[in-house]
Amino acid sequence: MMTEIRKIGVLTSGGDAPGMNAAIRAVVRAGVRKGIEVVGVKRGYNGLMAGNVIPMTLETVSDIVSRGGTILHSARSAEYNSPEGVQRAHDKCVELGIDGIVVIGGDGSYRGALDLSRTGIKCIGIPGTIDNDIGSTDYSIGFDTASNTAVDCLDKLMDTIKSHDRVMVAEVMGRNAGYLALNVGIGSGATAVLIPEVKYDLKRDILDRLDQAQAVGKHHALIVMAEGVGKAVDLVEQLKPRVSPDLHVASVVLGHIQRGGTPSVQDRVTASQMGYHAIELLTRGIYNRVIGVRSGEIVDYDIELALQMKKSIDVRLYEMATDVSL
Ligand code: F6P
Description:
Bound molecules: 6-O-phosphono-beta-D-fructofuranose
Largest sheet: 7 strands, mixed
Distance between the termini: 63 Å
Radius of gyration: 22 Å
Helix content: 40-55%
Number of helices: 11
């Protein structure tokens, strides 16, 4: 017999991502309209273990669809990553009368949701990370906005690179994946894109390309480097002794700027669809699922199966990036 969902919590976990607020808004408004009591859990799993919750109403989520970050704050929780932490979270849900939790975050947050689901709390995961490295979805909330933010920064950097005939290595986020770096490398017209998924050769992939650029009259170059490959400052030190002494080579780290800013329309729409779908699942008695996008469609998978899913970088896109860069 399907046990009715009467009260749920929603939380954001891991690195914040622009669009998380749009997902929160959809979860709250769709839930309230279905007669579900919704509470916001502050600061991820830490807040859940502590019972740090606030009531969420139709009004609470007004004017947040365009706001970056997460109104619920986020956290990475070492304490929760233990049987005792999970039990504390479970017990707090029972104490507060919470039947289910919607978790918005990356695959680490999904693992936390799986652990909680095994205690009987009904969980739904929504992919939220600028890294876009979750195997069970083509798209994670925040990826489009972060890509645009980084490209805006690199467009500005390109002005000075061109004005002074310089070579700049720009380090972008992505944790251990190259999705963000590849997207940004193509969007910014980088001469070379370095990603963890494809081993690069210093001479073939960088030094020779700098020579090729010079040969076609391009006396500047932008190299986009995923943080999972290494530090831009270290690559610069490798390059300096191998290029002409009068060639200025430097590095820039875009860092946490990539996580901020008002979400793009794509992130607002996708996040709203995912939040809405989470409530549809829960009200149909379907839970312990994670939501994703496959070929443009909103889908959902069992949490445990989803965590086993892998995805790989589009090597043809990577090759295209190189072929069209000069
Ligand atoms: O997972 C999102 C992300 O921004 C990664 O790209 C980055 O490596 C990491 O978070 C940074 O983590 P923190 O914000 O905890 O320093």
